Amino acid sequence: MKKLKTAMEKLQKSFLLAKRQISDDFEEGGESMGVPEDVKEGHFAVVAIEDDQIKRFVVPLSCLTHPSFMRLLERAAEEYGFHQEGALIVPCRPSELERIVAEHWIKGC
């Protein structure tokens, strides 16, 4: 459980740093890559990768508290570390992530 808490804290810090960097870029009037148009406020991009299956998702931040998604974050931290750039990559089949997101919406978390 302590590993999960540490993983969540690091993930939250990385989100805050990314948000701050994007804000700074826009305030300075400089050009930045920005956030893709399909990633609305309160959402983030996730890429599910397993074997030859790859699919990108845009999911609400509230999914971060879903127990199954938290386990995926733990697996991602073990497999890829905390130095990912861009979309969050999780080691699972796209169908597994679809199930987690659907379950999240059904429960209204």
UniProtKB/TrEMBL annotation:
Highest rank taxon of the organism: Eukaryota
Keyword Cytoplasm carried by entry: no
One of the GO biological process terms: response to auxin
UniProt keyword Repeat present: no
Annotated Pfam families: Auxin_inducible
Keywords: Developmental protein, Growth regulation
InterPro entries from the UniProt entry: SAUR_fam
PANTHER family in the cross-refs: AUXIN-INDUCED PROTEIN-LIKE-RELATED, AUXIN-RESPONSIVE PROTEIN SAUR36-LIKE
Family: Belongs to the ARG7 family.
Protein name per its UniProtKB record: Small auxin up regulated protein
Annotated organism of origin: Thlaspi arvense
Lineage: Eukaryota, Viridiplantae, Streptophyta, Embryophyta, Tracheophyta
